[in-house]
Design brief:
Elements: H1 2-23, H2 30-53, H3 62-79, H4 84-106, H5 112-131, H6 133-136, E1 149-150, E2 153-154, H7 158-181, H8 183-193, H9 195-200, H10 205-231, H11 241-254, H12 260-275, H13 283-297, H14 305-327
Antiparallel strand pairs: 1-2
Helix pairs in contact: 2-7, 2-10, 2-11, 2-12, 3-4, 3-5, 3-10, 4-10, 7-8, 8-10, 11-12, 11-13
């Protein structure tokens, strides 16, 4: 009976959470609304980053791939006057195409070498945006990006864009969740834990890693297009190494072992980030301390905290009961008709 009611409980919880999120834009302050919009975009970004992480690799080019989607959508809208809805699709596809091209050199490497190679490739792309001013606008970037519109509704305004970003975040999360639970996702997990064993039964590990890289880049590019059309201006500085390290910390602190882990990480650290905004110079220190503590005491991330707390409570409870039993005198609480032994 308990198992039958579980889906209903989860559905009611998600429904209540969604209802609360829909009410937020009407009760929070304007700057808090901005934070929530960026949070939705970052959730799509970090969950797409996890698609790469579950194959056993960590890419430092993911934020730059996000930027390729943003730049492609902005340039297509300004140069060719295409509808922003169409440029968002082309921007996402461009990000996936760039990722596919980068996969040829990158996936000849693994582990630390893949990490460094992805950083070098990402920086080469990002620096080219600042170098070729005639195309990408140099360090100033691209401005006057056309906003999204639905009829007479201008999605460039915070409240309409909030619901737009919320809807697309939910759609992207559902798609990526279903991908992970599909045969493709199970294969990616198998490659992560036992790549040699998977290859021994006919799985092309490199092919699946490339596929995960391209799919993740498509969603990262889509997050970039949302950012570009909301801000109406983008520059290379918005896709630098600092942002990429933040994504890495969000994923590790939240935990890449479960789908909800990176979401927990980005939500919690985003609120921490806002709470220390007045002490901006200490932000790297705070992030560093949080990352070190997570690696030392929660290697599986915050998503593993409930299990560790439960285990601690059980051990504490069993230890307390054991001490009580050991401290209890022999025969205590048991009536006996035997006479005490006589002293010899």
């Amino acid at each position: 009976m308990k198992k039958a009611s579980s889906p209903w409980t989860k559905g009611l919880s998600l429904g209540a959470l969604l209802a609360a999120v829909c009410v937020l834009p009407f009760i929070v302050k304007p700057f808090q609304l901005e934070v929530l919009i960026f949070l939705f975009i970052n959730i799509v970004l970090v969950v797409s980053f996890r698609l790469i992480a579950i194959t056993g690799e960590f890419s430092l080019a993911h934020v730059v791939i996000m930027g390729t989607g943003a730049y492609a959508s902005a340039l297509l809208g300004k140069w060719f006057g295409l509808d922003p809805w169409l440029t968002m699709l082309f921007g996402s596809l461009t990000a996936a195409a760039i990722a596919y091209i980068l996969s040829f050199p990158l996936f000849r490497m693994k582990g630390f070498y893949f990490l460094i190679g992805s950083f070098a490739a990402g920086e080469a792309i990002r620096l080219s945006w600042g170098r070729f001013r005639g195309v990408f606008g140099g360090s100033k970037g691209i401005s006057a990006i056309p906003p999204l519109e639905i009829g007479n509704i201008n999605l460039g305004m915070p409240v309409p864009f909030y619901f737009f970003a919320l809807a697309w975040m939910v759609i992207c999360l559902v798609i990526m969740y279903r991908l992970e639970k599909s045969r493709l996702g199970l294969t990616l997990h198998a490659i992560h834990w036992q790549d040699l064993l998977a290859e021994s039964v006919g799985v092309n590990a490199r092919h699946y890693r490339v596929l995960a890289f391209v799919i993740a880049s498509f969603f990262a590019g889509f997050a970039g297009t949302m950012l570009a059309h909301y801000l109406s201006v983008i520059s290379p500085h918005e896709f630098g190494l600092g942002i990429m390290l933040s994504v890495l910390v969000w994923a590790i602190v939240g935990g890449v072992g479960t789908f909800a882990g990176p979401i927990i990480g980005v939500v919690l650290l985003s609120f921490v980030d806002e709470s220390i905004r007045a002490f901006d110079e200490y932000r790297p220190l705070v992030y560093g301390i949080v990352l070190i503590l997570t690696i030392l005491f929660l290697p599986e991330g915050l998503q593993g905290l409930p299990a560790r707390v439960t285990l601690f409570v059980r051990r504490f409870w069993r230890g307390g009961r054991r001490e009580t039993v050991e401290a209890r005198p022999t025969g205590a609480g048991v009536a006996s008709d035997r006479p005490p032994p006589s002293a010899s």
